[in-house]
Amino acid sequence: MHDLDETDLEILRLLVADARRPFREIAEAVDLSAPAVSDRVSRLKEQGVIRRFTADIDRRQLREGTPVLVDLEVAPESAASIRDAVQELDAVEHVYVTVDGHVLVHANAPGAVGPWLDQVLEEQGVRDVAVSLLRESQWSPTVGASDFALVCDECGNTVTSEGVTTRVGGEVKQFCCPSCESRYVERYEELQSDA
């Protein structure tokens, strides 16, 4: 486990601005060698800080679908299953789950919005729906020093240099200590055996 330093944050800022930026160019900006930048990016991926590199597509240019913002008021116990169902729909850009029982969806609904949305409304636990047509949307990710503190997947404490990174069920998980890692893995294995 390695704490994120100012160089890591600057590398992240540069990648957020342009994920295809060559490591050589990043290296010049952060005063490292290209192989050192490559190593840091690999470590950030292993830690789960970088999940993937993707393209930000302006669907208006493709004339595809109807841009909408959908607010689903859901029963709190149904939020995870509804979030998962929404993520499976075609043309979903972003999904957010709020603490007060809402699942917010930014999408470009293919064809008519009603039939597209009916796929989700069949899910149990949807209490109310509000759909807003979007004129435009802007994606402006930022990286700031306060944005990045790795959080223990077991207890929620900040993960320091004594922390542990483990792959559980194909996902990278961060733990503040070996005992949190052990508890999490044991619970995961119990759930897997019960399934």
Question: Would you write up a description of this structure?
Answer:
The chain is α+β, with helices and mostly antiparallel strands and 195 residues long. It has 3 domains: 1-49, Winged helix-like DNA-binding domain superfamily/Winged helix DNA-binding domain (Arc Repressor Mutant, subunit A); 59-133, Alpha-Beta Plaits (2-Layer Sandwich), CATH 3.30.70; 149-195, Ribosomal Protein L24e, Chain: T. The protein contains 7 helices and 6 strands. The strands form 2 sheets. It has a 4-stranded antiparallel β-sheet, covered by helices on one side. Strands 5-6 form a two-stranded antiparallel ribbon. A hairpin with a 2-residue loop joins strand 5 and strand 6. The longest helix has 17 residues, at 178-194. The mean pLDDT is 83.
Offer a concise description of the structure.
InterPro entries: ArsR-like_HTH, AsnC-type_HTH_dom, HTH-Siroheme_Decarb, TRASH_dom, TRASH_HVO_1752, Tscrpt_reg_AsnC-like, WH-like_DNA-bd_sf, WH_DNA-bd_sf. Residues 4-67 form the HTH asnC-type domain. This protein is an alpha+beta fold and 195 residues long.
CATH topology of the largest domain: Alpha-Beta Plaits
Low-confidence segments, given as residue ranges, are none
Strand content is: 15-25%
Taken together, the total number of domains comes to: 3
Compute the gyration radius: what is it? 20 Å
Biggest beta sheet attributes: 4 strands, antiparallel
CATH architecture of the largest domain: 2-Layer Sandwich
Shape: flat
Terminal-residue CA separation: 32 Å
Structural class: alpha+beta
The helix-strand sequence is HHHHEHEEHEEEH
Helix content: 25-40%
Q: Would you tell me the overall average pLDDT?
A: 83
| Number of helices, where a helix is a run of at least 4 consecutive DSSP H or I residues | 7
Physical arrangement of strands within the biggest beta sheet:
2-3-1-4
By CATH reckoning, the class of the largest domain would read Alpha Beta
Number of strands: 6
Domain HTH asnC-type: 4-67
Pfam families: HTH_24 (PF13412), TRASH_HVO_1752_C (PF24273)
Keywords: DNA-binding, Transcription, Transcription regulation
Organism: Halodesulfurarchaeum formicicum
